[in-house]
Design goal:
Layout lengths: L8 H6 L24 H7 L6 E6 L3 E6 L5 H11 L10 E4 L2 E7 L2 E6 L4 H11 L5 E4 L4 E7 L3 H6 L16 E6 L2 E9 L2 E7 L3 H11 L5 E4 L1
Parallel strand pairs: 1-11
Antiparallel strand pairs: 1-7, 2-5, 2-6, 3-4, 4-5, 7-10, 8-9, 9-10
Helix pairs in contact: 3-4
Length: about 220
């Protein structure tokens, strides 16, 4: 095997793995993990005021990238694809328009992109990045909930042991943590706004939990 930064033509060809577009044609209706909850109808019929606002950002593209954070060529390739540099500081995030990147570990990042662009982004990574890396499309396995409102921190204190004080959890910070009896990747996107990446298998449980936990504050569903 040659040095990571100097690849032979055979090694370069080996990195160009076949990529399959996982998004079905327009004749197939995409359904999020909370499709059964019919959040759009709840948003129309439910209350318009409350201390907690919930919105599902459904059917996004979820890509997990693992690469060498000390490989300048790989970092540059990722930035060319995403239009933003990979965050290298622990528990941080970065974004460029509809693209967002979360630091998950020293050599792992979770990338969210519009669902219909996931295949294009995947293909660009295969074209741009050399060396040893991994890119996994896990879009169907998770969904994203946005929680906001005057009482959002109080709500989240019921769900996770993480210190949510603004000095300890500023805008842009990301943690992967216990959430009730499940787990979630939590990112603060505003002073009173958070984003949860949750697993499909626990989506219904967390949806039911949030309804109960927000009862005292009033829950507003947005769509």
């Amino acid at each position: 095997m040659s040095d990571l930064n100097v690849m032979t033509p055979a090694e370069m060809a080996a990195t160009k793995a076949a990529v399959m577009d996982q998004v079905p044609g327009s004749e197939i209706q995409g359904q999020s993990p909370l499709h059964h909850a019919d959040l759009e109808s709840l948003a129309k019929q439910g209350p318009k005021q409350g201390g907690i606002h919930l919105r599902e950002h459904k059917l996004l593209g979820h890509l997990t990238l693992r690469c060498n954070p000390e490989n300048a060529d790989q970092l540059a390739a990722a930035e060319r694809v995403l239009g933003v540099a990979l965050p290298l500081q622990p528990l941080t995030s970065a974004e460029n328009g509809d693209y967002s990147v979360r630091w998950m570990s020293p050599d792992e990042w979770l990338i969210l992109v519009p669902g219909l662009e996931a295949f294009e982004v995947e293909s660009k990574f295969r074209d741009e990045m050399g060396g040893h890396y991994s890119l996994v499309n896990s879009s169907g396995g998770s969904t994203v909930l946005e929680l906001s409102g005057a009482n959002v921190v109080e709500l989240l204190k019921k769900c996770t042991p993480v210190d949510l004080h603004a000095k300890q959890f500023p805008v842009g910070k990301v943690v992967s943590t216990v959430f009730s009896k499940s787990t979630a990747i939590i990112r603060r996107t505003g002073e009173q706004r958070f984003e949860l990446v949750i697993r499909r298998s626990f989506a219904d449980y967390i949806w039911l939990w949030l309804q109960d936990a927000s009862r005292e504050f009033g829950l507003v569903i947005e769509a």
